[in-house]
Each structure stands twice: as structure tokens, then as C-alpha cells.
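Email to the structure team, subject: DUF488 family protein model.

Hi all, the expression group asked for a predicted structure before they design truncation constructs. Nothing fancy, just the C-alpha cells so they can compare against earlier work. One-line instruction: predict DUF488 family protein, return C-alpha cells.
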Amino acid sequence: MAAHIAYRRIYDEPGHSDGVRVLVDRVWPRGMRKEDAHLDEWLREVAPSTELRRWYGHDPERFAEFRRRYLAELRDPSRREPAQRLHSLARTRNLTLLTATRDVEHSQAAVLAQWLADGCP
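Reply from the structure team: attached below.
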């Protein structure tokens, strides 16, 4: 694994140790110009499904169930390629997962960071 897998809001200033910066949201962040995002990649394919995002609604009380359902979605064969891409990046360089979510501790970026740190997929 990489020396560091981090997650943060896309609206935060880039850090020197960010390494590869990957947006993991399904939709583009409001008010963010593409030239100001300082992205290396946008892997919307690893984001939770629209149905799961709507059900979750960023309600921290639903986070455990959101995490369980999201990890199940990540095991779907249709997500194998983008998940492998993230895994490959995490093995070779520092990786920062970006999201527009205000509560990053209860976000898909946090779930993905832990999932990658655990050696998945």
C-alpha cells in the first residue's frame, strides 16, 4: 500500500503530501470550476449509486448501513475496473480521495480510504 491514503473536501486547498488527487463523487461539486479542482482523476464510477446516495442523505445515524451497502456495491463486477484503478494508485503513490460532502468522516471517501487501506479489492 501507499505511504498514505487520505480523504478531504475538494474545496480545501491541496496539500503537499496529497499525491494523486481523485474525486470520488458521482456528480460534479457545486461552485467548483474544473481548473480550480487540482484533480488528477475523476472516478465517478466508484461513487455510491444514486439510489444509495438518496437513501443515505448524509444522515450519520444511517452511516453503518450505508457503509455495508456501499461495500456491497463496490464488489459488483461492473465496478471492478475503476476499483482496480484506485487500488493500483494506492499501491504506488500517496492518494487523496476528494468529495464535496461536508461531513467527510461519514462519506464514501472515508469508506473507500478504509477499504483501500484494508487491501481491497
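The mean pLDDT is 92. Residues 5-117 form one domain. Ping us if the truncation boundaries need rechecking.
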